[in-house]
């Protein structure tokens, strides 16, 4: 049984075309989940790199303007 737009359908009664479309939809949904997880990793890494960059920059009192 699968629910689409609040209607339930028996998988065994779906046409082969509908089954193929369902399989494609499930595949794409899984790929989107993988990409979202990967994006979360990249966003976390970006924050870490940004923090590391800030820590590596000279403090304002160490910077002499005009030198």
The parts where pLDDT drops under 50 for at least 5 residues are none
- How far the N terminus sits from the C terminus, by CA atoms, comes to 74 Å
Overall pLDDT, averaged? 94
Q: In angstroms, what is the radius of gyration?
A: 25 Å
Query: Biggest sheet: strands side by side, in what order?
Result: 1-2
Strand content: 5-15%
N-to-C SSE string, H for helix and E for strand: EEH
Question: What's the layout of helices and strands?
Answer:
Blueprint: E1 2-4, E2 7-9, H1 16-56
How is this structure best described in words?
This protein has 67 residues and is mainly alpha-helical. It is built from one helix and two strands, in the order ββα. Strands 1-2 form a two-stranded antiparallel sheet. Strand 1 and strand 2 form a beta hairpin. The N and C termini lie far apart (74 Å).
Summarize the structure.
The protein is 61% helix and 9% strand. The chain is mostly helical and 67 residues long.
Which properties best describe this structure?
two-stranded antiparallel sheet; mainly alpha; rod-shaped; 67 residues
């Amino acid at each position: 049984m699968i629910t689409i737009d609040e209607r339930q359908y028996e998988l065994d009664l779906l046409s082969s075309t509908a089954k193929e479309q369902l399989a494609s939809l499930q595949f794409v949904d899984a790929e989107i989940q993988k990409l979202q997880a990967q994006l979360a990793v990249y966003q976390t890494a970006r924050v870490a790199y940004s923090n590391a960059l800030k820590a590596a920059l000279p403090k304002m009192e160490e910077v002499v303007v005009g030198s």
